[in-house]
Structures are given as structure tokens and as C-alpha cells.
Amino acid sequence: MPFRNTLARDLTISGAALHAGAAVTMTLSPAPAEQGVVFRRSDRGGAEIPARYDLVGETRLGTVIEKGGVSVGVIEHLMAAVAGAGLDDLTVTLDGPEPPILDGDALSYLVLIEEAGLKAHAAPRRAIKLLREVRVAEKDAYAALHPAAALSYDFLLAYDTPAIGRQNFQFAFSPANFRDLIAPARTFGFLKDLESLNRMNLARGASLENTLALDEQGVVNKERQRFADEFVRHKILDAIGDMALAGHALIARFEGVKSGHGLNNRLLRALFSDPANYELVTLP
Predict the structure, then answer these.
(1) Strand bridging mode 188-190 / 212-214
(2) Which of 43, 41, 45 is nearest to 75 (CA)?
(3) At residue 183, what are phi and psi to the nearest 5 degrees?
(4) Cβ distance 14 to 25 under 8 Å?
(5) Euclidean distance between CA atoms 246 and 244, whole angstroms
(6) Exposed/middle/buried for 275, CB within 10 Å: 0-12, 13-18, 19+?
(7) What are the angstrom distances between the C-alpha of 266 and each of 58, 89, 136, 242?
């Protein structure tokens, strides 16, 4: 029987926040069994926000959780690493509004988790097993969870730009597959959007070191690209991070077509809106 895991020790790192641009210090700490992942804002009186789907308040340019007027943004990359590492209970302390973006991927966080190591609790791990399909849609995009024997992701991405075009990737979830095939995929953005985002005090920490930048000709910093289809892989990375807000591992097949953080969150809300959609099982 697998048991819940937490970190074996504290680990601290600093770096720029993607949207705020300011330096943020983040400490990952062991947490008691059954706590789940909790974000703590040391700069806001130690306010705590559990990493839960029902506390998501913004999804436009990243997944933002909020509670009591305090928020933490762009948590999806760290949450993907948490899921990929099989980490269940964790306290994330920040002195700013977002985790540091680091390399724009999930691998940077995963390496930190591996460096700290895991420690097992006595409590068993549980998972959410899909009993029937759940689907949400908006225009030509949709996200769905299907009953399945094991967790997998299937994503179709389509952009009207030569650098991306139409990309599809299917991925059977395992820690090794996540580390090799998904975790290294960097976030991406379009240079034409950067100026307007900066005017809204967004994307101030984005750089050619942590973001794949696109213009009309293609990828500006192509030397930083790790996969030819890195864009669809990163969308799966985002989906893994967003699905981690379910609070337990999933036993399901995730299917996404042009979906993003908003549909991903709506999908979890739809899942939990009817107890007949799932059952909570103890992993053997």
C-alpha cells in the first residue's frame, strides 16, 4: 500500500516572479499527513491558502488561488512538479505574490523536490477514480475526464502561427515519463502581447531565459527550445498542475482540445458537483 509523502527537509530558493517581476523567496517545507499542499504568504501576515480547485479565483494568465483577500498566482508549474514527484503534503512559504518562475518549466521545481527528498507518512494514499465522463466546453475548446484504468493525458493544441500550428501529444502518467517528457517543457508567449501585458503589470519577470518567445517568423530564442512540440507538452504540464488541485491523484484519462486554465478549473468543479461522477479509493 503506498503511503502519503512529504518533504524530508526544508529547502529555500529565490528568483523572479513571472508577472510581478520582483524577486521572491520560496521555502518548501515538510507538512503533516492529510494537510495537502498549502501556500503561506509570509509578507501578508502568514496568511494560508490551500491548493484547492474551489479556491481558484483567476485563470486568465495562470492559475491563481485566493482566500480572505490574499492570493498566490501562477502555481501550476510547481503543482505539476508536486504531482510528478508523488508529493502529497507540503507547505510553500512565499514572501511575494507568486512562486519564482525559475526556468519556466516544472523540472526546476522537481529537481528541488528531489534534492530535499521525500519522507513517507503512515497515512495511505488515496485517489479519485472516475466513474463516468465529465466534460466542459467553450466555443471550439473542451476539457474532459474519462474513466480509465490509469492516469493519462491527451492534448490537442492549435495556433494560427507557423511555430506551433497543430500539435497533439499523448502521455501515460508515471514519475519517469513526467520527468523526461513533460517537466522540461517551458512556458511560451507572443512578443506582440508583451507590451500590453507590461502595461497591466503582467509578465514583468518573463525573459528569453525562462519563456519561449514567439513572433511572426517563429521562436525567437530557438536555442532554448527542448522539444519540437514543446508547446503542447507545456499545455499538458499546465493541465497536470491544474488537476493537482483536486487534492488527490486521479485515475482517469484527461482529454484537452485547445483548453486552458479556465476550462481545467471548470472541469474539476463539474467533477465534484456530482458525487456519482467518482469514487475515492485507497491505492493498493
Answers:
(1) parallel
(2) 41
(3) -55, -35
(4) yes
(5) 5
(6) exposed
(7) 12, 24, 7, 10
* Nearest alpha carbon to residue 8 among 136, 95, 117: 117
Exposure b/e, 137-171, CB count within 10 A at least 16 = b: eeeebbbbbeeeeebbbbbbbebeeebbeebebeb
Residue tagged 486568465 (cell numbers): 60
CATH topology of domain 127-282: lpxc deacetylase, domain 1 (3.30.1700)
Taking domain 3-124, whether its CATH number is 3.30.230.20 is answered by: yes
Residue at grid coordinates 475515492: 280
Measured in Å, how far apart are the chain's first and last C-alpha atoms? 5
Q: Would you give the DSSP letter of residue 27?
A: E
**Residues 25, 3: Cα–Cα separation, whole Å:** 30
The per-residue pLDDT string of the chain (284 residues; one tens digit each, 9 = 90 and over) reads: 799 999 999 999 999 988 778 899 999 999 999 999 999 999 999 999 999 999 999 998 899 999 999 999 999 999 999 999 999 999 999 999 999 999 999 999 999 999 999 999 999 999 999 999 999 999 999 999 999 999 999 999 999 888 899 999 999 999 999 999 999 999 998 877 765 655 555 457 778 888 898 888 889 889 999 999 999 999 999 999 999 999 999 999 999 999 999 999 999 999 999 999 999 999 99
Tell me the three cell numbers of residue 228.
Answer: 519540437
Cα(100)–Cα(73) distance, rounded to whole angstroms?
Answer: 10
Question: Catalytic site residues?
Answer: 261
Domain spans, the chain = 3-124, 127-282
